[in-house]
Structures are given as C-alpha cells and as structure tokens.
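Task card 7
Instruction: Convert sequence to structure tokens.
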Amino acid sequence: MEYVTAVPHPRPEAAAARSGRRSLAVALLCGAAGAAVALLASRQRWAEGTASVAGGAFPLTARGSDITGVPAALAVVGLAALVAVFAVRRSGRVLVAALLALSGAGTVAAALNGASDDGALDEKAAQASGDTAATAASLSHTGWPYVAVAGGVLLLLAGLLALRYGRSWPAMSGRYERSGAPRPRAAKPLDPDRPEDLWKALDRGEDPTGTGPA
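Output:
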C-alpha cells in the first residue's frame, strides 16, 4: 500500500520576507563598509614625487584629500542616505536609495579620475621651490585610489539593493516620531486654603475633595 505525504509549499509572503531580510543585511553591510573604506582611503597617500630645491631632491607626497575631496564627501552623503532609507517611505525611500547609488557611482568616478592626477604634487613642488612654474619629478602613484573605488562600488551596490528591495524593508516606528498634537497640561493641585480654587473646580465639574462619588 502506497502512502502519499503532502509537503506544504512555502508561501510567497514568507519567501519575500526572507529575501527582504537578506537584502537588508547585505545593503547595511555594504553601505557601512563602503563609506568606511572610502573615507579611510581618502586619508592615505595617493601620489609621491620630488621637487628640485637648492640643487637637491625634496620629497613630496599627496594624500587623497589633497587631490580630490569628492570621495570623502560622497562617502558621508552615502552613509547619511543609508540611515535615511529607514526614516522615509514609498517614493521618498526610492529617492534616498537613488541618492545612495549615485553617491557610490560618484565616488568611483572621482577616485578613478584622481588615481593619475599630478596637479596636487605640482602645487606642492611650486610651493617648495618658490617657482610657480616648477613641477614634480619622479612621479609615482599608490594603490589607495583603487581602494576608494572599491568603497564606492560597495556604496553603489547598497543603493541598488535599496532600489530593488527597499519597499519591503521596515521603516522607523511611529512611536519615535514626534506628534504635532499639543501635550495635555497636568492639573494643578488644589489649595484647600484658597476658596476660589475650590469654586473653580466645582465650576469645571471636578470633585475638589478628590474622594469622588461614594
């Protein structure tokens, strides 16, 4: 005799909820890590060179923030957008998610553009030599601009995930939002030595003795 066992199929709502939780975790991880990596990379040396000063070679270095401040600024914007995703809903969430993705794309473009930029070193060479026409020599570039590119890619991925799955993510609870309704005033305690307070309480329909009806 054969037995047929019915295996329940997973509900589409449960599968969507699991997918939303996974995408939320990945987006948070990518967004936070991407912003941290881009900020860290912007503070490192991106280019090195020398300037001719008094017949000798004067070493020059340029950090990412000396070459371009765009990656660091966009990393802060992207991190703020990642937090703001949970404070808005519907179309507002789509706009914030798009801002997050654009921050990542802008970080990538700015870091790639600054990877071969020599302008900051030329300015340092002119300052060191006192000659406005002086330029840096023996130029070399480090790999930190591409680390900033990786941070931008992570921010971009977080933004794309927010655009795709953000509608199923939870929003900030309403109990944390400030209501515009005025708070009720606390009742002033009645002073039994002031008869006018007792009469005012009676006019309002209150029991001035505080005992209430028997």
